[in-house]
Write a structure and sequence with these properties.
By secondary structure, this protein is α/β, with parallel strands linked by helices. It is 29% helix and 31% strand. It is built from three helices and six strands; from the N terminus they run αββαββββα.
């Protein structure tokens, strides 16, 4: 039986690569790596969501946004929505600054608007009622959704999609910073 003759330098290179991979994968000490800690702040188990105000002249969208935020919190976080502020651990509130539309592109020959964009601007605030800490302080969330009348899309549907995206971003803001 013949033995493979591997040069000693190749063995040292393989050992060095193995050691480098082992040390590089460790997240302890001075090394930074992945962390499996909780994304949401600890000590909070319930959220009272106030009805969002609206400074827009378009009415009814504050109901859609509040409903979308409540659904997102229930599905994407460990928090429970409560209907009584007195038993809640935290309060989420805010206001719709504007809901509007703007034209994105026009048809070159006729000048008709080819594509529009529904926009939503929301300001949100989240306060821990146990410690009085303000965890989100008047953060602005802006969303944009394109739509076209040529394919049967309208502003009402697109504005609801924009508000749903704003709710998604608001719930993302409720997560802890990764750098903590």
């Amino acid at each position: 039986m013949k033995y493979l003759k591997i040069p000693i330098s190749v063995i040292f290179v393989i050992i060095a690569i193995f050691v480098a991979c082992f040390i590089g994968g460790c997240g302890q000490g001075g090394f930074s790596g992945y962390d499996n800690s909780w994304l949401n702040p600890r000590g909070i188990s319930s959220v009272y969501v106030e009805m969002f105000d609206s400074q827009s002249f378009r009415r009814g969208h504050e109901y859609d946004l509040t409903d979308a935020i409540c659904k997102r919190i229930e599905t994407d976080t460990p928090y429970k929505i409560v209907s009584d502020r007195n038993i809640a651990d935290s309060v989420l509130s805010g206001k719709i600054m504007s809901i509007g539309k703007r034209s994105v592109s026009t048809e070159r020959n006729t000048g008709r608007i080819f594509e529009n964009e529904a926009t939503a601007a929301v300001v949100v605030r989240w306060q821990n009622l146990k410690t009085s800490e303000i965890m989100i302080d008047n953060e602005s969330v802006d969303t944009f959704v394109g739509y076209s009348a040529f394919v049967g899309q309208d502003f009402e549907y697109s504005s609801k999609v924009a508000l749903n995206r704003a709710a998604e971003r608001i719930v993302e803001l409720m997560q802890s910073d990764w750098q903590e």
